[in-house]
Amino acid sequence: QVQLVESGGGLVQPGGSLRLSCVASGSIYEIKIWGWYRQAPGKQRELVAGFTRGGDSVYADYVKGRFTISRDNAENRIYLQMNSLKPDDTAVYYCNADGLFGGTWSNMWGQGTQVTVSS
Length: 119
Prior knowledge:
This protein is mainly beta. It has strands at about 5, 10, 20-25, 30-40, 45-50, 55-60, 65-70, 75-80, 90-100, 105-110, 115. A hairpin with a 6-residue loop joins strand 4 and strand 5 (about 45-50). The radius of gyration is 14 Å and the shape is globular. The termini are far apart. About 30% of the residues are buried.
């Protein structure tokens, strides 16, 4: 069974930084697409940053220049470095992976980690 587990969320003051981590474990043959999504109360889940099938990084306009996504293929792990955080960044952040898991191409979600930006 494949699992995605996020960590690194918490409470931070405006202007502060956090680093989120997501690790995939289980029967993993290959992960083609990674993504960080977020969902604020009363809003739809939205893409924050991710890696395309070709390996390029993509970002939502509202995080460009503040957030950086990175990956460690050997450990099936991705990170999201979040700087200059704003109260509007408050949300549950989810990791998403699209890959070959247990011999089947499928899409997986983590359980989410809460990020709260408040003074």
